[in-house]
Amino acid sequence: MNLLITGGAGFAGSNFIRHIIKKYPNYKIINLDKLTYAGNLNNLKDIEGKPNYKFIKGDIADQRTVLKIFRNYQFDAVINYAAETHVDRSISDPEDFIKTDVLGTYNLLEGIKQFTISKYIQISTDEVFGSIKRGKFTEKSPFKPSSPYSASKASGDLLCYAYIKTYKLPIIVTHSCNFYGPYQYPEKLIPLFITNLLEDKKVPLYGDGKNVREWIYVLDHCNAIDFLLHKGMLGEIYNIGTGVEKQNLEITKIILDELGKNKKMIEFIKDRPAHDLRYSLDSNKLKKLGWETEYNFKEAMRETIRWYSKNEWWWKPLKSGEYLEYYKKQYLS
Ligand code: NAD
Ligand code: TDX
Q1: Over the stretch 160-172, which tens digit does the pLDDT of each residue have?
Q2: What class does CATH assign to 2-184+215-246+276-298?
């Protein structure tokens, strides 16, 4: 199978490329990535040089680049991981979110409209549904995004829905809960808190820390996308969740305990604007198709903390330069 994976130099995309290369050595992968601050070729150090893997630096928001790649390679399937992904950055500067998450998705959809592709998978998020106090979002729940990030992801997803209906294109849209695991950029809750504590810095918890997120280990997400690539029904929407819901304070305590740190290391700070209280997905549709999680939350969290503890070479350089400027603006002003 010939695969185009966009955003493959980011957290989830790089884990997925590693998963595919290991499991299907006869598949060919093109990784198209703009290498924004979040794109990092160190995420794929062990993959570069493999004969069935090729990296192309390029922007999905540039239609000429996208169509040229579709013309030059005959892809069987396209998986769109590329996005601007950090909610706080979308609040301070939304423009790139609209360009990549909306226009970029549109360009890829035009690619699959103009060339013959068997499957396109849109990697999206539970955040498009907004916040839910009780109960769970199904695939049919309306979109109620709260941040420019979730609004831009929702817009990309709506384009996918329209291209399914209007052009009968072979698209699958996935809404996943929060990922955690190795190679996640240290601006997101779990890697930020682990690496701060490893550096003996405090961890900035927004509001009262009671916001709830549903968590999936990134390798379970890779398995889910692999499953949908081979068994997902075209034109369908799938939620990808685990039922593992935790308050941010609970996540923080797990990390503190694992690293032998005191609760005094928590600094409660001003809340994120429009901070969604809780996300929760009903993932029965995907389970009924035969997918199930493989990893236990406690074990996978421990493994994740261990990974950041052992891989300072990977995250230390990321917490300087542009990141440091962002961090100062975000937390120290
Ligand atoms: P990430 O921020 O770690 O990586 C994003 C990647 O996309 C980077 O390599 C970046 O260079 C690339 N990229 C950005 N703009 C691009 C452009 N215009 N053209 C080409 N490449 C571009 O993201 P992630 O956390 O791995 O998320 C991957 C996908 O999964 C995203 O679509 C995100 O919305 C979705 N998602 C993430 C989570 C999560 O918890 N991280 C949960 C649900 C869904
Ligand atoms: O410093 C922090 N302090 C804090 O309390 C950060 C970075 C986050 N938080 C809180 C905000 C959220 O309630 O932790 C929770 C998780 O925050 P993020 O890691 O920023 O993730 P979230 O906003 O939930 O969005 C993530 O999951 C869905 C990804 O960033 C999105 O790309 C994905 O779609």
Answers
A1: 999 999 999 999 9
A2: alpha beta
Task: Tell me the CA–centroid distance for residue 3 and ligand 1, in Å.
Answer: 17
Rounded CA separation 202/297 (Å): 24
The tens digit of pLDDT for each residue in 250-306 reads 999 999 999 999 999 999 999 999 999 999 999 999 999 999 999 999 999 999 999
pTM over 0.90: yes
Please tell me if the CB atom of residue 248 comes closer than 6 angstroms to any atom of ligand 2.
Answer: yes
Q: What is the pLDDT of residue 333?
A: 63
Q: What is the CA radius of gyration of the chain?
A: 19
The whole-angstrom separation of Cα 136 and Cα 283 is: 9
What ranges do the domains of the chain cover?
A: 2-184+215-246+276-298
pLDDT of the residue at 159 = 98
Choose one of 59, 85, 108, 188 to mutate for the ligand 1 pocket test, by most ligand atoms within 8 angstroms of C-beta.
Answer: 85
